[in-house]
Specification:
Order of helices and strands: HEEHEEEEHEEHE
Strand content: 35-45%
Low-confidence stretches: 1-9, 23-36
Pfam families: DUF4390
Strand order of the largest sheet: 6-5-4-3-8-9
Largest sheet: 6 strands, antiparallel
Organism: Dechloromonas agitata
Protein name: DUF4390 domain-containing protein
Mean pLDDT: 84
Structural class: alpha+beta
Length: 207
């Protein structure tokens, strides 16, 4: 009698164990499916100029229909490019030497029927949204390390990283609520890291 009772209890326990394993597997897999990077970063480079080092990179992405519609209806999309330069330390956490970010504002002006891409005080106008996105996808000559940065020495190798992301926190409040957990409003890249060999900066004689 005791053995039959034990057997009858083992089946539900096995089913429960199988369910728990499937649930744990779902917890591990679903975040990667839900938050897969929608922007691919390619060709990141740091190049020396008179003022320091400038960053260039390409971002491969398309706006989905929901984002296209939002822009056309007057919603401003804010994209943020982030850059970090670090140095590995075997005895402690990596040392962060530089951290920069730059915001791009993508908008549509109904009166002129043009799309505008703005960063800082610079503005560019385009007749089509695809033209504006194409320029946004090409990051060029962004000064991320200044000549005066004493912690960075030419000729040494560092770890550089860049990413691009849509900042939903700068959307109008109703759209922020809509964007929560909505993949249509999720547009970002993973950090793209690479070993950066910093070439010597131009000297005064070379100018």
């Amino acid at each position: 009698m005791a053995s039959s009772t034990a057997c009858s209890r083992s089946a539900p326990e096995r089913r429960l164990a199988v369910c728990l394993r499937r649930w744990l597997l779902a917890l591990l897999v679903l975040p990667f499916l839900a938050w897969a990077a929608e922007i691919e970063v390619t060709n990141p480079q740091l190049q020396p100029v008179d003022d320091g080092y400038v960053l260039s990179a390409d971002f491969k992405f398309d706006l989905n229909p929901r984002l296209e519609e939002a822009v056309t209806k007057g919603v401003v999309l804010h994209f943020i490019a982030d850059f970090e330069l670090t140095r590995k330390r075997w005895y402690w956490l990596d040392e962060k030497l530089a951290a920069r970010n730059q915001t791009y504002r993508l908008s549509y002006h109904a009166l002129t029927r043009q799309y505008r891409l703005s960063t800082g005080g610079l503005h560019q106008s385009f007749t089509t949204l695809s033209e504006a996105v194409l320029v946004l996808s090409r990051l060029r000559n962004w000064l991320v390390i200044e000549r005066s940065d004493k912690g960075v020495k030419p000729g040494e190798t560092y770890d550089a990283a860049v990413r691009l992301r849509l900042d939903v926190a700068q959307l109008p409040r109703p759209f922020q609520i809509t964007a929560l957990g909505n993949k249509d409003w999720s547009l970002s890249s993973d950090w793209k890291s690479w070993p950066a060999d910093l070439a010597p900066l131009p000297t005064a004689e070379a100018k």
